[in-house]
């Protein structure tokens, strides 16, 4: 069989991290060692350093493909196969081929090279893995059209991660080392944002770590390695379902926190017969605790508890096991050394920690056997068969038949006893066995009609008869108990699953939960009661009933069943008395009801806090505008009027015109400011809300530049295909005007300010880009505070209020206003607004740009 080639993949978090550069560097190293290596296809994207590395390497000419009156180039797979090199470089594993070739995807072309025995070195970004498509889209807002199946990448013999910090990658982008200069700003503002790059980097690291873990496990399995390799801390916590479990879990969490990358695996081992003394409630609570601490919970079946625990620990390559000190009493050690001692003796290289707790030596507590739960009719039938059957059989066999043997009589009595046990369970079977033994002894064992047995084999027959009857009765009883327990646990699990599903679906209203609890337990009324701490009285915060005539439950005394939730809340039901075993599920309903009540109150508090915060924000902007923006035009008007009224100076007509123009400009500015202040005052008092509607940025943004004295230095770039935004036109116009005015003020003379709009997912952005001195990261939030400017150095008009007012208006419209660095120097203000429900513009999709 021909040798199949090996695949090596360079994996990166984003474009530009250096995958192709690393692949070409590896090619030069192999070529220097004499390896027959060719470049089947490499995309250098006009990056000078990458293009330079292609020099000195043999390149297979590409084939040209015509598609829709355009010419494209693709890898010539047949030419590479004819050349038959030892190693081929094929860039961009997830690439989709131009229609017309025999393979739709490049990875399929690579498969052909591998089948021909050619080793392949390729590259791929983490966002192109098929399984991560939805995750990447949620992070970046971009759906990757070109994907490669995960299995293709997993089959690679080597996967090498090419990593780069987000800050370094953004610097490479800003310096023009990745994209062309005209694409840098858009890339940094969208896909290459620090948050996006950090999330993609984490995906790449986690995916690679998972593959390394899989390779390690495969190697251990192939070489039969059972010992533990301490690659990272894996701590297994052995749980018994007892109350000490939470102590063990927290202790293991503290141990894992002392090192980086620690992992907690809690495991509960139950016997194969299903009978256990573990508390399902305790196990559920411990599962929740483990998951809250970042660990995982596992349920393993095994009759040999120490062996199953060690097998699990070795299977997950754990290096530590945490167990609790035994709860057995001293006399119970006569039956064996216990799980802890056995695990410690046989653990080998795994460290075993025995943790003391409050339940030490208090006894494990054996499960209490309950009735068979066979039903009343079956129990009565079993008693009738068990008592009447042997008597009727004795009467029927009172006339001895020729050749009758004692063994035959025993089998007939045994059949009735077994039947009684199958129908009625343990006690009818035991009574039938006892009565049958007595009747066999007196009437059928020789000498008959006496309480003596002359023959030894008859004694053995009677004893065996009794033993079989007892065994059958015991098995039937245990089977009935298990069936009942399984049915009950299934009903409980279905109820809890329904309850959990309601949480996931968002059906978390208190009334719906109470109604579900009432229906589940067949009650007439269900209510959630809360005690007033001041008056010490109970009050009903939610109640449902089967019909209007049922007496409501207002206090615990009115209820047939009550489940306390903390010190001041209680779930109360009326209608019947519930058995104790039903209270376990009812407790889950009670806890969920209390959680819903808390969520409702927190939601109400959050709503009130949001309104207060929004009111405070608008009030702050209002006061700042009144104290500063209003004073500036008033001072200019007053100075101009005082100058005109002065008798000491003879003003020329030109000077008077300038002063009057200054008064007019100040009055216009006051008129605009007072109008906005009135709107803000109405917003602050809650008498009006921002009028959010579908607006066209092409209609609003140009109006915002109308009052700027230097509007001619502003360039507009608003595509015609841009979706509508949901905003208040007046507030948006004032916000854009303030931001642009700030940008013009700080831009170098003769350098235009760019106002560009674009869409990002379900948002619309207006970006105001200047080439001024910029603002350090530590000052970016401070410049939005009233009376603040970078450096607090006055320059021209204004006292540092415009950005504070602009942010207040934008946030009132449910948007954001943030500052970012402009690549190459300067500051970019980003106004982000929600996208209107209309998804597409009805205008043409061709982009257009205008300048002012």
Mean pLDDT: 77
Q: Which structural category do the helix and sheet elements fall into?
A: alpha/beta
Oligomer: single chain
Main sheet: strands, sense, barrel: 6 strands, parallel
Q: Helicity level, as a percent range?
A: 40-55%
Radius of gyration: 41 Å
List the domain count as a whole number.
5
Strand content: 15-25%
The total count of strands amounts to: 25
Any idea of the CATH topology of the largest domain?
Rossmann fold
Number of helices: 24
How would you sum up the global shape? Answer: flat
How are strands sequenced across the largest beta sheet? 3-2-6-7-1-8
Low-confidence stretches: 363-372, 792-799, 839-852
**CATH level 1 name of the largest domain:** Alpha Beta
What is the CATH H-level superfamily of the largest domain?
Answer: P-loop containing nucleotide triphosphate hydrolases
- Corresponding CATH architecture of the largest domain: 3-Layer(aba) Sandwich
Please give the alpha-carbon distance between the first and last residues. 72 Å
